[in-house]
Amino acid sequence: MLPLTFHPDVQIEIKYSFERYQEQSKGLGYEFINELEESFESIQSLPSAWPKRGNFIAVLY
Predict the structure, then answer these.
(1) pLDDT in tens, 34-52
(2) Rounded to whole angstroms, what are the CA distances from 54 to 18, 51, 57, 58?
(3) Is residue 5 part of a domain?
């Protein structure tokens, strides 16, 4: 499977988003993480379905 590489700020943003979702509704942060993990798995299993920038797959949300 294709390894994923992220900008260093991604970890900070994911943590912040998780905490915000948890504040809104207990368990919602975990749903957010599960959706991210499913998205990452999709990118890894079907890399040709995503746009590329140089040697990298660009994922824009």
Answers:
(1) 999 998 888 888 877 777 7
(2) 30, 10, 8, 9
(3) no
